[in-house]
Amino acid sequence: MIIDYGRFGERLTAPWPRRGQLVEELQREFGYDGTVAPERAVAAVAGVPQALAGWLASPTNSYLAERGLYETFLQWPPEPAGGHRVFMTEYEGCCVWGYRSADAQLPDPAVWIGFPDEPDEPWDRLSRSVTEWLVQMTVVRVLPEYAFRGGVRTFGTDEEVQGRAVRAALPELGLLPWPETGNTFHFFGARDAIVVWTSEHDVWECADLEIYGRTEAAVREAAARLGVTLDHDEVGAPRRGTLGRSAPGRAPERGAGRG
């Protein structure tokens, strides 16, 4: 069955608790098949948002099952920090993610980002819900390992021109932009594929466009909508998961993944 991620926003904005299974659904759609070993499970904590507690309690939680994917450290129970409760820290400590302490009783509150090196600066809202934050994390951390992927480099094009071209070709996925390491990731949907456009390039050696597909054909179709033809060796097979095992004539790539 083909999934149109151009309509993903409808799933993301579904009322709670209907969207509570969205992260697990998305990861399964892209071939994630991990399970949490008993020794990696975390204890339940009272007084935290339902979306966060439910994610950590899941037996298929990808952070607990494949911790190296995320390049982050879990803060559990969440720790107080300037009117917020921090539940996750970037692995080098350059930023932290949390929800406002006043929102702890909400089932799926907004997630904010703070920077320890700038303690006097206000935190920025990064995600409209914990669910959205988990979906953002899935796209930038999990899909690069589990999806078919193709990268398109267009460094010679002005960023504003790039942005207009991508938005004209594809609908937005419904996620807020994700800032990280001098870059900002913008998310778009296609048939059986999610496209990430990177602006504000700094230190990352990444393509301007990353296409993550459920099949090789989906990656090529999304690239074609962007006016790009990918050569045979420009589409990589999944490194992990069920999609690579089911692809005819394609073995999953070997090599190190994230973390």
How would you characterize this protein structure?
This protein has 259 residues and is an alpha+beta fold. The chain is built from eight helices and eleven strands. The protein has helices spanning 8-12, 22-29, 50-57, 62-65, 130-146, 159-169, 216-225, 242-246, and strands at residues 72-81, 84-90, 96-100, 111-114, 124-127, 148-152, 178-180, 183-190, 193-199, 209-213, 235-236. The strands form two sheets. The protein has a six-stranded antiparallel beta sheet, with helices on both faces. The longest helix is centred in the middle third of the chain and has 17 residues, at 130-146. The radius of gyration is 18 Å and the shape is globular.
User: How many DSSP E strands?
Assistant: 11
Strand content: 15-25%
In angstroms, what is the radius of gyration?
18 Å
Amino-to-carboxy terminus distance: 32 Å
- Relative helix content: 25-40%
Number of helix segments?
8
Contiguous runs where pLDDT drops below 50 for at least 5 residues: 251-259
Lateral strand order in the biggest sheet: 7-8-9-10-6-11
Q: Which class do the helix and strand fractions yield?
A: alpha+beta
Apparent shape: globular
The profile of the biggest β sheet is: 6 strands, antiparallel
Order of helices and strands: HHHHEEEEEHEHEEEEHEH
What's the helix and strand layout?
Layout: H1 8-12, H2 22-29, H3 50-57, H4 62-65, E1 72-81, E2 84-90, E3 96-100, E4 111-114, E5 124-127, H5 130-146, E6 148-152, H6 159-169, E7 178-180, E8 183-190, E9 193-199, E10 209-213, H7 216-225, E11 235-236, H8 242-246
Helix pairs in contact: 2-5
